[in-house]
Each structure stands twice: as structure tokens, then as C-alpha cells.
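Quick question: what would this complex look like in 3D?
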Amino acid sequence: MRRARPLLQLAGPIALVVAAALLGTTVTRATEIYFIDALVAVSMVVALYVFVGNSGVLSFGHISFVAVGAWAAGVLSVPEAEKPATMPYLFDFLSETTVGNVTSLAIAAAVGGVFALIVGLPLMRLSGLAAGIATFAVLEITNNILRYYEKIGPGLNTFSSVPETTDLAQALVVALVVIVVAFAYQQSRFGRQLRATREDPAAARAVGVSIYRQRLGAFALSGALAGLAGGLYVHFLPINVDTVYLNLTFITLAMLVIGGATSLWGAVVGALAVSALDSVLANAENGLDLLGRTVEVPAGTRIVVVSALMALVLIVRPSGLTGGRELSFSLRRLRRRPA
Amino acid sequence: MSDFLRDAVDLQVQADAIGLGAIFALMAVGIGLVFGVLRLVNFAYGQLIMAGAFALAFASDRGWPVAVGIALCVAVVLVLSLAMERVVFRPLRTQSAAVMLIATFAVSFLLQSIALLWFGPLGRTAASLASLNRPVSIGDVEIRKITIVAIVSAAVCLVLLVLLLNRTSIGLHMRAAAMDFDTARLLGVRANLVSMVAVLVAGVLAAVVAVMLTVQFPTVTPTFALRETIIVLAGVVVGGMTRLVPATLGGFAIGYASGVLGGALPSNQSQYLPSLVFAAVILVLLLRPGGLFTRGVRTVERV
């Protein structure tokens, strides 16, 4: 019984994500975009969860790992012939190299992970509010550099000519990979040690857990997954430096908080639920056919609803829709875990 | 480099930088005051200023007198501040600082997207105070009137605030709450009143800042004051979050520094200014978590 339950916890998120992808195959191409988008969001939010959920430390900086992943994959996969026109100032080694789809995703993950590791070396000494602000500073710095440094990317311009390889199947595969890695991590001794530091830092330290090292490990892993998600993103939409900035930071944090920040199940549920809501509203902004009547809401309603929902969840149910618990079919889940 | 030095000591650049520093200092006080009493980093402070700026634009669209516009601006900001305090801050008072930060992040996006919905991405123009942009000659230097107005109003606001904090009983209560909220409550400080007053005072300052900023940047968009707020937050952290004076100094310093550097550096260098500023934030958080301008005992352990 004890061995079966962890796998059951993995089955929930996987089933949900696969179901979303299957549903995506039944709709028109125009609607399929929303499903792909939702799966990319799952990857990003689960990546964020690996650090924030397990450590209990807030990070506003994860979108910078998504951004560098996207930059790495995007710059490297634009065909060589196109590069002088769209990105004339690139470093030679970047403009002379072009890699395939899978390689570019792997590089995105590697770049995200290494960047997170370097950033984490000093930053993981901080916690609480200081960590929140410092990671926010990382987001600002990364954004500022990507915005103006044209030797490593398109600068202010939107990426163009990046092969749009992220289809439903690929988005699903990456989302599943990210979920399985996140799950394996949280079942591992490192994941458990980090969760121990979240629940009681003093006790964790007393039994010999190094808070700094566990956080740093999770931060780097989480950065790698975020970089991977960024690679997926750049192959999906023509993005620019503002796509991977405050709004995305906000939306992914909102998804995690609304779903329940302390469980993988919560991360997946939050990402899919908010994406679903977001897509319905996006459709409604263009006029939605609902039971024969056309419902139209003004453009911009989406963020109003999502941010109001996020504030509401924080006030009414700070542990999120799932209560921050893993999916479980036993009646025991009704009893609250001691905090 | 000599060009840089010449531009940096140019009196006009200096005057503009001090004016910007004064506005940033007011914002820093608004953020620092709320943080001191509620231990809450108000990410949505910039959106209060944005709302006030839209009120000014609304009034100037209709050709209302300047005084009415300013009154409307103050009213809108105060009502919003109170609503924010009542609906979001108060229920979350017992939550961790990180949760409150996320919540104000949400409020900030909420207000910004409501503004987007209401006024569109291009926003409105607030032009009724544009005459303040005209320069006056002092000696052989031309200084814009708004710079003088900004410096004077910042000074007046700060003096009034110091009087409020040091000479009234509610000020005493606020200082007590900032030092130790729970103990202050035990000793009879009314928590809700104190947090309301802190938020209201911060709101008045936001309204003043809205007036100053709309003179310099008359186009009011939903992202109005967003950049400024982020920079001021950085300045407050660098100066020292937990005390009002260091926080204000930090806000002033960052405004002054960006004014001087922005005015004197060529744009291909000044575009990386935010990176420098935020790198400084990280350094200060790591090396002097209490802030640059604080001395003595660390009141809050942040590392």
C-alpha cells in the first residue's frame, strides 16, 4: 500500500495532462492553440513549483530562466541564412551555428539550469521577503540585458523565423517529462530534505540538512525545467522580451498559487484551470457563442478576472484549490495534515 | 569621460535629478510607511499613482479647473487605498510577508488591467498643469517650474509627516506599531486604525506624486508609474526597508542617481542602468540586509 500510493500521486497529474492533450486533438486548429498554450503553461508552472513549492521560498525570478531558455533555443534554431537579416549583431559562434529542434530544447534546459545555479549561489542564502525581492531583481536584470544586448538575440525585436515545432504532441511530451522529473525529485531524499526545511528550518538543520545546498539544488533543477519550458515557448509563439517579463511572471505565479503551491497536483491543476479560464475569456473577447447567444466581453477582461481570482484565493483559501495536497483517493486526506 | 563629468555637474541636470529624487523620495515614504506598520511590501503602490493620474486626466479632458482635478485625484487614490486596506491587507495581516507580497502583486495587476479595460492601452492625456513645465531663469540656469514645485512639495510633505509621527498620538501609535505590532496592540494601540492611517497617509503621498508625475509625463497609460515604482522599491531596499528615514534616503538617492546618470550618460550606456541598480539591490540584500543607510541593531532578521 505504501509503495502504491506515490505512483498514484503521479498518475493524477499525468492523467489530467494527457486528457487535456487528447481533448486538444478533437478541436479545430484555431482552438488547438489554447491547448498547446495550456501544456506549455503546465511545464512552466511545474518548473516553478519544483523550487517554490518544495522550498516554501518565493521566487519572482523564474521567468528569467524561461527567458534565457527561450533565447538560447530561439537564437540557435533560426536558420543560418536568416540570421544576418533578423539578428545582425550576434556573436559569431551564435550566428554560425544552427541546431535541430530536440537539441535546442536540451540546450535551453542546460542554459536555464546553469544560469539558475550561478544566480542561486549567492541568492540561496536569502529567504522570505529578501529572497522575493532579490529574485525580482534577477528578473529585472535579465530582462534589461536581453532587451538591449543584441549580440545574444534579437533585442527589442520579436523572434522571427524560429521553426514552429511545438505542436500538441511535443508540448505534451515536454510537460510529461517536466512532471515526471518534478515527481522524482520530490520523492528523492533531496526533495524530502528540502520539504523538511520548508516545514521547520530549525528541526531540519538539527538533523543535518543543509538548507542552502538543498535550496540551491532545487533552484538549479527548477531553472533547468523552466529553461526547457522556455525553449518550448519560443518554438510555439513569436515571442519578444516583453512576452517573458512581468505578465508571464504574474500569470505563472497566479496559476501556482490558485492551484496550491505546495503540491505537484496543485501546480498542474492550477496551470490547467487558469489556462482554461483564460482561453474561454480570450474567446469571449472575440465574441463567444454560448447557447446560441453571442457573449462578448471587452478586451483585457482576462487579466482582470485572473488577478481578482488570485487575490480572492489568497484571502479565502491561501492553500489553493487543491489545498496544497497531492491527489489521493484515501479517505484519510480529509484529515488535515499537521502543518 | 570628461563629457560625462561636464554633463553631470551641469546645473540643469543637477536640478532635474534633485526634482526626480524628491518625487522618488515621496514614493519611498509611501512604500516605507506601509511596510513599517504592516510589514507589507505594497507592489500596488504604483497603480494607486496611476489611478490618481487617470483622475487628473479625466478632469483635464472635461476642462475642469486644476483644483477640482487635484481634489478628484486625492479622492480616487484615498478611496482605492482604503478599499485595498480593508479587502486585501487586513485579512492577510497574519500571513507571511511573501504571501502578502504576492497578494499586492495580484492587486497591482488587477488595477492595471482594469485601467486597460477602461481607458485602453494608449491612455489619456492630463494637460491642465502643463504650464508648470515652463522654465524660470535663475541666474543663467533655466529650471523648470515643476522641479521647484516637486522639491518644495516633497519637503512640505516630509515635514508634515515628521510632525504627524512625532507630535500626535496617532503618530506615536504608528511608531509603536512599526516597532512591534503585537506588543503595541497589547498596550492598547488600535491595530485597524493604525493600519488605516498608514495606508491613508501613503495614499495622500501617492496623490501628490501623481500630480508631479503627470506634469512631467502627461500621457497617462495603464503602466503609468510602474517603472518608477519598481525602481523606488529597489531604492527602498537599498536604503533600508525597516526604517522610514533610510528608506526615504534610498528613494531619493536612486532618483537622484538615475537623474544624473540618465542625463549625463549617452543612451547606449544608460540603457543598462536598471541592471546596475538591481545588481546593487542584490549586493545590499546579501551584504547589508538592513540597508545602506541604517546603523546599529538589525531589527528584523532577513537572511
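Answer marked as accepted. Chain B is about 75% helix and 5% strand.
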